[in-house]
Amino acid sequence: MNASPHDRRSVLVKLVMAGAALIGAGFAGLAGLVAAPRLTRPARRWRRALPLTDVAGTGPVSVVIAERHADGWYETRKQTVVFIDREGDGFRALSAVCQHLGCRVRWDHGQTQFLCPCHRGVYDRDGRVISGPPPRPLERFAVRVNPQTAELEVEL
Amino acid sequence: MKRVAAALTAWLDDRAGIRAMRRRWLDEPLPPGTGWWFTLGSVLLFGLGLQTVSGILLALYYAPTPDHAWDSVRFITLAVPGGHFLRGLHHWGASVVVVAAGLHLVRVVVFGSYRKPRELNWLFGLALLGVILALGLTGYLLPWDQRAYWATVVSINIAKLTPVAGEWIAGLLRGGADVGALTLTRWYAIHIVVLPAVLGALVIGHLYLMRRHGISGPIERQAGVPQTFFPYQAARDLTVCGAVSVVLAGLAWYGAPELEAPADPTSSDFVPRPEWYFLGLFQLLKYFPGRLEVFGALVIPGLAAILLALLPWIDRGRSREWRSRRVVLGAFAAGVTGVIALTVLGALDRSSRTSSWSVRELAGAVLLTSGDRCTKCHRADGAAAPIEAGRISRAQDWLAMHVADPEVIAAGLREPLPSDEREIAAIGAALARLRAGPAPMLDDPTRRIMVVMNATCLGCHIIDGVGGTDGPELSKVGRLYDAASIERRIVNPAAVKPGAQMPALGGKLTPEEIRDIARWLAAKK
Predict the structure, then answer these.
(1) A97 in contact with B at a CB cutoff of 8 Å?
(2) Under CATH, which number does the domain B31-348 receive?
């Protein structure tokens, strides 16, 4: 039984289409593999922040915690800004990243509030939202006192 | 000569069919009454061509890495011949493209040109507008200055608001866990390869569809003989493009806006603002606090885009006359007014925070130039290059180390200086500011008191955002006390307010210093 030329043509059409689709899928897979972001963060660990005596309780003290950080091929010092304050007998560490769109908040001594310059987010001393667009309070980090060095450490 | 040209043309025509091609491309008959309104698309095409050429020229020098991007842009501006103009051209060219695209869109809606059978071309046009805005957004990051960095942080966080896939999209845009080196290379590739390729394909599709259906022509069909595109409409196109070029060259002559300081993820004194064509969206965000955010960021702009895309199917009547399209045109006019109003409001809503130099920065600038602390080496014929505004490229932590211990790079050159933490902090702050521009000129008494105030007052008081927190903030102390009262408080605080914690400075500072400081503070209102 001989296949008619018409059948041969339609089989060939399907083969060509399947081949082209396979090549396309290969490229798409490669693009997905390469372009996928590298999102792994290093695990949290305790980092030295500042001597205990530097936190007087008159308001949050901002500390820049720097560490070596691999940003792809580029090695840099990642700097994290943390506000440290007294809270009852203990301490509180708040992230300086506004929970709205990620701008850097600053502590206003006059108004005793954290202000975000971008879209006017306002937080109180505990990091709770007072007004403006932020959907959540400022992120809190764990703080502990290192009794040997009399320094505060923050878990980042 | 003429014979050679004719022979060459004949030879080319024989092989490539250039005469038929010319007829096909340039002799398109246009409906009678096609006029100046129909030049807007050509202006847009011209602008896109200009961006391509200026972008390629910029790419000859630009380096997309966090440690070199800012320097390479500064190099283009300062050292490449014509670089200042080139960067201005690319910057302002982007605005020309956005304006031309906007006006072209308004023209198409007002003339009802999207009606059947041109619906598909309308969609191509909207996709082009999206690509143009994406080019503006991705290009904004590349100079890697404060403005670039923070605008990108904000726009990536807006993408994060997308329901379900938000985190994934933000990750794809960032490339890494944070905005950094991987984001910069990624946006660079998107800006110079991916988007231009998509743009080129869309432009070809747009032009092909335009030619396939012919241009829509005036709202009401006019009597007369069709004119060919070349040279009649081409002359109008050239006139408008010429006028736009003159304006653009004038803007480019003044160059692009100055570079801000290099991107600094820890700074909190920078207020990010988007490019003007995103100001409307930026303003819209302010009206939707908390969990409603997604409405301002995505839902409203998304609905507007969907409505625009559906226009050819919403507005389906036969006549393109305004009278029969009142509802559609009214709604469109309201939308355009809304966009313009939001943009104007966004432009007016500037933060009150000034970017004037703080006491610490000014003190640092004075210390850099007084005595021979720095100028011993950093001078015209010295061992190191003079310190010039806009020409500081070392990283901030290197500078901090160098200021504290200059011998790190020049062992044995001289004795280490007695280090004073506050002076070192001031010099570091001044160097950071000098990256972006020169320090303000001060008279001699002010120069002196800046150094004194940095060493004395800032230990306990905040002035303009910098200083210690043991004493009250002094940024607006002039509202409370006059110069004489401030002077008494500096000489002996306890005499004015019994039990005051502040030490008497009468013996530590000279009477002139105290007088000048009091006058300076009294002016802070």
Answers:
(1) no
(2) 1.20.810.10
Residue B104 has which token pair?
């072209």
Say if the Cβ atoms of A129 and B473 lie within 8 Å: no
Tens digit of each residue's pLDDT (9 = 90 or more) over B354-385? 457 888 888 888 888 887 778 878 887 777 87
Chain A CB contacts of B154 below 8 Å: 101-103, 118
Average pLDDT over residues B322-333: 92
Q: State the pLDDT at residue B367.
A: 86
Q: Measured between CA atoms, how close is B298 to chain A, in angstroms?
A: 14
Q: Is B349 an 8 Å CB contact of chain A?
A: no
- Nearest CB to B286: which of A61, A62, A119? A119
Do A8 and A50 lie in one domain? The reply is no
Q: Which of B74, B106, B133 is nearest to B276 (CA)?
A: B133
Which of these, B325, B228, B307, B256, lies nearest to B29 by C-alpha position?
B228
The average pLDDT across B435-440 equals 74
Tell how strand A151-155 and strand A113-115 pair up. Answer: unpaired
Question: Distance (Å, rounded) from C-alpha B486 to C-alpha B241?
Answer: 62
Which of the residue ranges B2-16, B236-250, B347-361, B472-486 would you say has the lowest mean pLDDT? B347-361
Which residue from B67, B154, B351 is facing A102, i.e. has the nearest CB? Answer: B154
* A86/B contact by beta carbon, under 8 A: no
* Rounded CA separation B17/B23 (Å): 10
Residue A41 falls inside a structural domain: no
Helix (H) or strand (E) holding B294: helix B293-294
Identify the domain containing residue A18 by its residue range: 1-36
